[in-house]
Design a protein that fits this description.
InterPro entries: Band_7 (IPR001107). It is built from six helices and nine strands, in the order αββββββββαααβαα. With 284 residues, it is an alpha+beta fold. The protein has three domains: 53 residues, no CATH class; 121 residues, Band 7 domain (Tetrahydropterin Synthase, Chain A, 2-Layer Sandwich), CATH 3.30.479.30; 54 residues. Strand 7 and strand 8 form a beta hairpin.
């Protein structure tokens, strides 16, 4: 039989065990699947960033230690004018063409962190991954697009050159961040570039004029082709008549021969003294 004293000891032991368990849990950190952890020590001679990243799961966190998570699966982030899942800030990319004409656009980036590079990445920038996206990475995307856009004019951007600009910008961003263990695989425009209204109206007017000019040229070319075809047909017909006339002149009895082939042997039924057959019946 348990007496009151024994029961008290058991209860006290359970409470102590519970407190220890709660303490251990509070001193730990769970790294979510798809992420790795970076452990930072702020106390003692070993203060700094651990070189070894932590896999997903629960990890003990001692006094003066904290764990920062970095996503290591491929993800796509958008820099847009409108609010998104990361906040209400306007993150559109601004740039200009080679005349200094300002314009803006929304851009999406697809990237992935090498799990083994996460500690060094944090040690270099001292930023979480979201902070990297909002700061250094976005700045590099903007700088790369601006550098490539200023090599062309707005007409080239509007007529299809924007894809060349974004691909060259991708190469710039990818080359830089590959050195930090971040693989940037895509950089894409979201929607269309936002041009100033007055420039957009001028471009559209020019495009319309160019289309009308092309249409007029096509109609002229068609009319010329039809006229040349008619001239060629007339020349062909005249040449045919000339050849026939030359043949008849060289063979005068050919007409009589064709008449004989078609004559039924009857004289024309004509009253009066002028009725004669079409062919000459006298022997030659």
């Amino acid at each position: 039989m348990f007496n009151a004293k024994s029961i008290g000891r058991i209860v006290a032991g359970v409470i102590v065990a519970g407190l220890v368990l709660v303490g251990l849990i509070s001193c730990g950190k769970t790294v979510e699947p798809g992420n790795v952890g970076v452990k930072i020590r702020t106390l003692g001679g070993s203060a700094g960033v651990d070189n070894q990243s932590l896999n997903s799961g629960w990890h003990f966190r001692g006094i003066g230690e904290r764990i920062v998570e970095y996503p290591v699966i491929q993800r796509t982030y958008s820099y847009t004018r409108e609010a998104d899942e990361r906040g209400p800030e306007n993150e559109e990319i601004t740039f200009a063409d080679n005349t200094g004409l300002p314009m803006t656009a929304d851009v999406a980036i697809t990237l992935q962190v090498n799990p083994t590079s996460a500690p060094k990445l944090y040690e270099t920038y001292r930023l979480t991954f979201d902070q990297l996206l909002d700061g250094p990475i976005r700045n590099d995307v903007r700088s790369a697009i601006a550098a490539e856009a200023e090599r062309v004019n707005v007409d080239q951007l509007y007529s299809g050159g924007r894809q060349q600009v974004i691909q060259r910008a991708l190469a710039r961003v990818s080359n830089k961040w590959a050195r930090h263990g971040v693989q940037v695989t895509q950089l894409d425009w979201i929607g269309t570039i936002r041009y100033p209204d007055i420039i957009l109206q001028a471009i559209q007017a020019k495009t319309k004029t160019d289309q009308e000019t092309l249409t007029a040229r096509a109609q002229v070319a068609k009319a010329q082709a039809q006229a040349e075809a008619q001239i060629a047909a007339a020349r062909g017909q005249a040449e045919s008549i000339r050849i026939i006339n030359e043949a008849l002149a060289a063979n005068p009895r050919y007409v009589e021969l064709k008449a004989v082939e078609k004559w039924d042997g009857k004289l024309p039924q004509v009253t009066g003294s002028g009725g004669t057959p079409f062919i000459n019946l006298q022997e030659r």
